[in-house]
Write a structure and sequence with these properties.
This is Ankyrin. By secondary structure, the chain is an alpha/beta fold. It contains ten helices and 25 strands. The longest helix is centred in the middle third of the chain and has 20 residues.
Length: 383
C-alpha cells in the first residue's frame, strides 16, 4: 500500500481531493495534513470583507472533502520534513510517513525583516487569522460608531487594492446605518512603488488610483515601511524610510509573499524567497518524491505571480502527475498561461476586468460575471 500525503488545503489540493474522490487509485492510502478545518477561497475573500458573502459561502469544508476522497485527515501543522526517511514532522502528532508528498500551503506576507511588523500588524495570510481580526474590528465599530477609526494597508498590489475598496465599502455602510458622518473612517494605502498594481498596465493603475481618491482613501507612493511601533494607548505608529510617520488603530499587511522557512531547512531546493522550485511536472527539482503547487511553488521555466488563478489551474495537472508517479508512468508537463485576466471588485458590487493592456469597468455586469465564476468554483465542493 503506497502512501500519498498532502500538506495544506489550498486551491490546488482542494481540486485534487475532489477529483481523487471521483476516481481514486486502489492500493493507495491518502492523507491530508491541514492546520485549518475550513479553507478560504481567495477569489471571494474581498466580497466577504465587503459583507456580500457569508462565511460558509466562501470556505471549503476540508473534513467533508477528505471524507469524500476517502482520505485520513490530521488537523495539525507541518513544521518539518525528514527527506531521507520520507517523514512529515508535525507540531502535535507523531511523524507521518509518505511515499509521495504534495505541498500546497500558500504563502504569507513578508514581515520578518521589518521591526515591529509581526507584533503590531495584521497579515492578510493566513486568512483565518485576518478574518478573526476583521470580525473583532466590525464588532468594535458597531458597538461604538461615534469613535473615529484610522486604518492603514501596507502593499499596493491587487490584494491591497481590493482590500482597500472592500474595507471602505463595509465600514462606510456601518457608519451610514448608524447615522454617523463618513469621515469617521480614515483609510491609508501605503505602497513602495510609484504606482499601484505595478505588475499590471499603467492605465489600470491610473483608473484604480482615481477611484480610490474619489473615496477619499489616502494614497502614499514610494514609501517603504522600516518600523512599526505601538504607543502606550495601543495606537500603532508606522515609520517610513522617507521620514513619513502615520498613527493608526489597525495596520493590514499585504506586501510581497514569502514562504515558510521550514521548507528550505528541510533541504528542498527553493528560490530566493523560500518557495519550492519545481519543474514543468510540478515536481521538486531536488527531491522527486515531493510535488508542490499554488503559491508555495515556483516553476523554474515558467515563473508567475503568486495569484489564485494559477493555483486553481494547477489542481488537475497536479493530481494527474501524482497518479502517474504512483503508477510509475511518465509525467506530463504543465505550461501555465502567460497573460491572465484579473477581476478587481471595487466594493460596490462592481468590478474592473484587466488583461495585458486592456481594462474595462468598473460596472455591475463584470461583478455579476465575477460572482458567477466564484460561485461556480465553490459549488463543486458543496455537495
Amino acid at each position: 500500500m503506497k502512501k500519498l500525503v498532502l500538506i495544506g488545503g489550498g486551491h490546488s489540493h482542494a481540486i485534487a481531493l475532489k477529483k481523487w474522490g471521483m476516481n481514486p487509485l486502489s492500493e493507495v492510502e491518502l492523507t491530508l495534513i491541514t492546520n485549518v478545518v475550513k479553507t478560504p477561497y481567495s477569489g471571494m475573500l474581498p466580497g466577504y470583507i465587503a459583507g456580500f458573502y457569508s462565511f460558509d459561502q466562501c470556505h471549503i469544508d476540508l473534513p467533508s472533502l477528505a471524507k469524500y476522497s476517502h482520505a485520513k485527515i490530521y488537523i495539525d501543522q507541518a513544521i518539518g520534513l525528514d527527506l531521507e526517511k520520507n517523514l512529515v514532522i508535525c507540531k502535535n502528532n507523531s511523524p507521518i510517513p509518505f511515499d509521495l508528498l504534495s505541498i500546497d500551503i500558500g504563502s504569507t506576507p513578508t514581515v520578518l525583516s521589518i521591526p515591529g511588523a509581526i507584533e503590531h500588524t495584521i497579515a492578510v495570510k493566513p486568512i483565518s487569522k485576518l478574518l478573526q481580526y476583521w470580525h473583532q474590528l466590525i464588532e468594535e465599530i458597531q458597538q461604538n460608531p461615534q469613535q473615529k477609526i484610522r486604518l492603514a494597508i501596507v502593499g499596493g498590489g491587487a490584494g491591497g487594492v481590493e482590500l482597500a475598496f472592500n474595507i471602505h465599502s463595509h465600514l462606510t455602510q456601518i457608519y451610514q446605518q448608524a447615522n454617523q458622518p463618513l469621515n469617521q473612517l480614515e483609510l491609508h494605502l501605503i505602497h513602495s512603488g510609484k504606482r499601484l498594481l505595478s505588475e499590471r498596465h499603467p492605465s489600470l493603475s491610473r483608473k484604480v488610483e482615481n477611484l480610490l481618491k474619489k473615496l477619499k482613501i489616502h494614497l502614499h507612493f514610494n514609501e517603504t515601511v522600516d518600523q512599526v511601533d505601538e504607543t502606550q494607548n495601543s495606537i500603532k505608529k508606522i515609520s517610513c524610510k522617507s521620514g513619513l510617520t502615520l498613527e493608526c488603530d489597525r495596520i493590514f499587511w499585504v506586501t510581497q509573499a514569502s514562504a515558510s522557512p521550514w521548507l528550505k531547512q528541510a533541504g528542498l531546493t527553493t528560490d530566493k524567497r523560500g518557495f519550492i522550485l519545481v519543474n514543468d511536472n510540478l515536481q521538486s527539482v531536488s527531491h522527486p518524491q515531493v510535488f508542490a503547487a499554488g503559491d508555495i511553488a515556483t516553476m523554474v521555466n515558467y515563473p508567475r505571480p503568486k495569484a489564485g488563478v494559477f493555483a486553481v489551474r494547477q489542481g488537475q495537472p497536479l493530481l494527474e502527475n501524482l497518479k502517474r508517479s504512483l503508477e510509475e508512468k511518465p509525467l506530463k508537463p504543465f505550461i501555465p498561461q502567460k497573460e491572465f485576466l484579473i477581476l478587481i471588485g471595487t466594493g460596490d458590487q462592481k468590478a474592473i476586468a484587466s488583461k495585458a493592456w486592456f481594462n474595462i469597468g468598473p460596472n455591475s455586469l463584470l461583478w455579476r460575471w465575477k460572482d458567477y465564476i466564484d460561485q461556480k468554483f465553490m459549488k463543486q465542493f458543496k455537495n
